[in-house]
Design brief:
Order of helices and strands of chain A: HEEHHHHHHHHHHHH
Strand order of the largest sheet of chain A: 1-2
Strand order of the largest sheet of chain C: 6-7-8-3-9-10
Number of strands of chain A: 2
Helix content of chain C: 25-40%
Strand content of chain A: under 5%
Structural class of chain C: alpha+beta
Radius of gyration of chain A: 26 Å
Oligomer: heterotrimer
Shape of chain C: elongated
Strand content of chain C: 25-35%
Radius of gyration of chain C: 24 Å
Chains: A mainly alpha, B mainly alpha, C alpha+beta
Structural class of chain A: mainly alpha
Helix content of chain A: over 70%
């Protein structure tokens, strides 16, 4: 909608006079589809999930009786705390590893690949578009007791001790989830690094800064928010995953997501599952809040 | 020349601080750095692509157990795959889901992209962040939150629930791709069209849509691969008829057959093919955008760019 | 005056040993070819810049002037030839090891640092003590009249203010040489004028050698002690602004610097030439074959004054434009069309007038190109 066209009544040029509604009415009206979409697919479902977590499960059916029993049961169960701690550790470690690796890769690609940087960046992002299940399952083949890596190690002469430490452990979870998270973390770190104007680095060199100092005083401060966003995305994705634990996790690799899967599936405790789901969402939002707080604080400081 | 401002006690008259070894040293460091960078990226690519290659390798291996050494070459897993009626059903079902959900997403995503470009309101950032949430949040969250709503309003899990779930995360993707294209679009073209007497509808049809057509197609291809591959959301929303990933998930969780590798290889290959096609389309679209800009008015940048 | 003209060929043969100290900057047959391009960006450029000079490199976009500057700064390495700073060959020495500072065209202020931190940056890099940094930053900011903006972030400043901060940052380290890459390119006319004044004042105060890259001939003439005119990667002429303007060495320089009448002609004698039906005396010896002469519009006089000139013709006024301080006339002489500028003119289109100019104003210029 273009700006107001003046008063059409007086001039003979206007062929169709416009009715005079305030602009914001039109804008809201135009936005309506988007607002409805968000309400139906994002807000309402999550509100109902929240509601469910306060309802009562009885014999596989959820009845609308408000209760905090789901949460008290959850928070008083030792298993929950074990799973929460483990999920946090796995998610933090693999998101951090993924961010560091993605940052290094993005740095190398932006600074050294010149005109081929887009190609190199695409090569890192392509696995995102290949079946998640396939990629995770492939790690089961690679890390399995009789798997690919074990076979390689055996031919190299390592004993069975070395080969049994992979599958169904936290290590295998971290290897797989880091792998899964790298392209996500890469997306935002690469964008951030690409946006650092080259002339700023020239200016820093001109002022006498060496390569490391240029990185420390110019590139890092300018790209830290992007890296933080990458870390947050990686963390949130990993934190709510249930496919990977089911594939390569085994007993030691069970995570909160596994619990949700169990309660919505065979456990038939949807209210309890919703409570776990809400816990996962809350943790993710909490991390996002902390990160955005830090980036904002940092921006305010020098 | 030794005015007060410039005099610096104890400073050599040379304008370059270090001696000549700096040049050779920095050159050496550059070479070491390049080597380290290349090795690092090589290892990273190995890490990223090893799973894909391993799956492909074992889809042709006659081994019953997925381990080295490879015993021999065989097509039999692919044969078994196409003899599995349930698998074929699942593939057909997944294709149908993908077509329907991508169609919804194409319309919605295009609409939202145009809205985001034109209608600037306070809180617009929040709106676009919220609409992108299903794309970036873990699939499980979208899956269970939709599941409880469908359950409340009495919709049984099935085709509709899956299609809605997929549209929820494909739409932000389509919208994002088109918004990237719209960033370089020339809004004055639409003004010109209106100026020449075309109404909003005809302007959309003759000016706006042709500008984003290729990008829209590319976005649909990307969305299609996502929909075909999705498991985390779908698992909660699927009814008795599983989609392909849900069916395969069942296979690999409860008793594993090597034909899964063949299925994965085909899915992966199909995804890469669509991805390549989408990439080519986006390249074409970007080039066209640049050409259109070149024919437009010259930008008022006076900067000399060498 | 013609004898003082320094052509590129003479400049490069100037020995470095003549004086006590070597020049601040010396380029010796410098060449730069970017990979994947057919033509060199900079080709066989030899320039000598002396201590304390305000030296301008003037050229249009793509002339290689910015590339030349970047090679002096150390952002680019020459493909051939040598860059000497204070007599030392600096090939391969990166920018951070050169005591040269640059004012970037787009300012290149660090967006995440306050003005104070931006200006302090080069001092920190030189490990200047904390106690000394504060006063020196303050002094630099005062020098560019920006002391009250020390705690702002760059995005809170206007273009002209950012430019001043960039200048302060480049000067605070007291470099021997300051490079300015079209520093006024992004500013509007009014700001340019005040920045020009500031630059000139600063250079006088601190006495640092300035190398100033610009496409604006007015800036170059007004500011410089010496100007190098570049075109297509080559130096066309190096000289004082007066030399460049009055005695252009090539027809490119004559056409690029101000308005001029370029007449293609043939030698008609030792110091006379023929162009169509016109025959006139020239300032210096004519070369054989075809060449061009340059006659500035303001060197041409009309009316009675014209009759006493060495070169005197009669022409028909074709167009008159009043430019405020002068009248600009288009006149047709035989088959030639001349532009001339006079203080007063009362005639009209179609009038027949006397036109004349001196032999000294008829400058023989080389042909540009074959």
């Amino acid at each position: 909608m273009t700006a107001a066209v003046g008063s059409p009544a007086t001039s003979g040029i206007a062929t169709r006079p416009r009715t005079g509604l305030p602009a914001w009415v039109g804008r809201t009206f135009q936005l309506a589809p988007a607002l409805v979409w968000i309400a139906v697919l994002v807000l309402v479902p999550n509100l109902f999930l929240l509601l469910y977590s306060f309802w009562t499960s009885s014999y596989g059916v959820v009845v609308p009786e408000l209760t905090t029993a789901n949460y008290t049961a959850l928070f008083s169960s030792e298993v929950f705390w074990i799973l929460l701690r483990r999920t946090l550790v796995i998610a933090l470690v693999s998101a951090a590893l993924a961010t560091v690796i993605a940052y290094a890769a993005a740095y190398v690609i932006v600074r050294r690949f010149g005109r081929y940087k887009l190609l190199a960046a695409l090569l890192i992002l392509i696995p995102l578009w290949v079946s998640y299940l396939m990629r995770v399952f492939a790690w089961k083949i690679i890390l399995g007791d009789n798997g690919f890596l074990a076979g390689v190690l055996r031919t190299l002469g390592f004993g069975p001790d070395a080969t049994s430490l992979f599958l169904y452990s936290q290590t295998s979870m971290i290897i797989t989830l880091t792998y899964v998270a790298i392209p996500y973390a890469f997306l935002s770190t690469y964008t951030a690094l690409e946006r650092v104007p080259p002339h700023l680095l020239e200016a820093a060199a001109d002022c006498g800064a060496g390569a490391w100092t240029r990185f420390r005083t110019v590139i890092l401060p300018l790209t830290r928010p992007g890296a933080a966003v990458g870390f947050a995305i990686a963390f949130v994705l990993v934190f709510g995953d249930y496919v990977t634990p089911a594939m390569v996790g085994g007993l030691d690799g069970t995570m909160l997501g596994t619990l949700v899967l169990q309660q919505f599936g065979p456990g038939s405790d949807w209210a309890g599952g919703s409570a776990v789901g809400i816990t996962i969402i809350a943790t993710g939002l909490l991390l996002l809040a902390v990160i955005s707080l830090f980036t904002r604080l940092e921006a305010r400081l020098d | 020349m030794t005015s007060g401002i410039l005099s610096r006690p104890g400073r050599a008259p040379s304008i370059t601080r270090p001696d000549r070894t700096t040049a050779t040293r920095s050159k050496l460091w550059g070479r070491v750095g390049t080597t380290v960078a290349v090795v690092f990226l090589g290892l990273l690519f190995l890490y990223l692509y090893a799973p894909l290659l391993v799956t492909m390798l074992f889809s042709f291996a006659s081994n019953k157990v997925q381990t080295l050494p490879i015993e021999g070459f065989t097509w039999s897993w692919y044969g078994a795959l196409f003899a599995d009626a349930q698998m074929l059903d699942a593939i057909r079902y997944s294709l149908l889901v993908a077509v329907v959900s991508v169609s919804i997403s194409a319309v919605a995503g295009l609409g939202f992209a145009l809205l985001a470009q034109r209608v600037k309101v306070r809180g617009g950032g929040v709106i676009s962040a919220l609409s992108a949430a299903p794309m970036v949040a873990p699939g499980m969250v979208l899956g269970i939150s939709l599941l409880v709503v469908f359950n409340l309003i009495g919709v049984q899990p099935g085709f509709l629930t899956i299609a809605v779930g997929h549209a929820a995360f494909v739409t932000p993707l389509v919208s994002f791709v088109i918004q990237q294209r719209l960033k370089v679009a020339d809004l004055s073209l639409e003004d010109a069209s209106r100026d020449l007497g075309a109404g909003p509808l005809r302007t959309f049809w003759h000016v706006t849509l042709p500008g984003v057509r290729v990008a829209l197609l590319a976005a649909c291809l990307l969305g299609f691969t996502l929909s075909m591959d999705e498991i985390a959301v779908t698992y909660f929303l699927a009814g008795t008829q599983p989609t392909l990933p849900v069916y395969v998930w069942g296979l690999v969780r409860f008793g594993f057959t090597p034909e899964v590798n063949a299925a994965f290889t085909l899915i992966g290959g199909g995804s890469l093919l669509l991805l390549a096609l989408a990439g080519v389309l986006m390249l074409v679209s970007a080039r066209r955008a640049r050409r259109q800009q070149a024919t437009g008015a010259p930008s008022d940048r006076t900067a000399e760019q060498l | 005056m013609p004898a003082e003209t320094i052509s590129p060929a003479e400049a490069q043969s100037t020995p470095e040993a003549a004086g006590a100290s070597p020049p601040v900057v010396e380029l010796r047959q410098v060449r730069k070819v970017y990979p994947g391009t057919a033509h060199p960006a900079v080709d066989d450029v030899s320039i000598i810049i002396n201590e304390g000079e305000f030296f301008s490199i003037l050229g249009s976009s793509g002339s290689g002037k910015t590339t030349t500057l970047r090679m002096i700064a150390g952002f680019e390495q020459p493909t051939g030839g040598q860059v000497l700073l204070s007599g030392v060959d600096v090939s391969g020495v990166p920018a951070n090891h050169r005591d040269v500072n640059t004012v970037f065209q787009n300012y290149a202020l660090f967006p995440h640092m306050k003005v104070r931190a931006n200006v302090a940056y080069p001092l920190k890099m030189k490990r200047v003590s904390r106690a000394e940094i504060g006063p020196r930053v303050q002094e630099a900011l005062e020098r560019v009249d920006m002391a009250s903006y020390a705690d702002r972030l760059p995005h809170q400043l206007s273009g002209g203010q950012r430019q001043r901060i960039a200048l302060a940052r480049a000067l605070v380290g007291r470099p021997r040489l300051l490079l300015l890459d079209e520093p006024l390119g992004a500013l509007d006319f009014k700001l340019r004028e005040s920045m020009l004044g500031l630059l000139k004042r600063l250079q006088r105060e601190v006495g640092i050698t300035f190398v100033y890259v610009t496409h604006d001939q007015g800036e170059a003439l007004a500011m410089s002690d010496k100007v190098a005119v570049m075109s297509k990667g080559r130096v066309e002429q190096i000289g004082t602004p007066q030399e460049i303007y009055r005695v252009p060495a090539t027809s490119f320089v004559a056409g690029f610097i101000g308005k001029t009448n370029l007449l293609r002609c043939q030698a008609a004698g030792p110091t006379s030439a023929r162009s169509g039906s016109m025959r006139f005396a020239t300032s210096s010896a004519c070369s054989q074959g075809t060449f061009s002469v340059s006659v500035r519009p303001e060197a041409i006089v009309v009316g009675d004054d014209a009759r006493s000139c060495a070169n005197h013709f009669s022409g028909v006024v074709d167009d008159v434009a009043f430019l405020g301080h002068v009248y600009e006339l288009q006149a047709v002489v035989g088959d030639q069309r001349l532009t001339l500028r006079v203080d007063e003119f009362n005639g009209a289109r179609g009038d027949v007038i006397d036109i004349g100019w001196s032999a000294e104003a008829t400058v023989v210029v080389e042909e540009a190109g074959p």
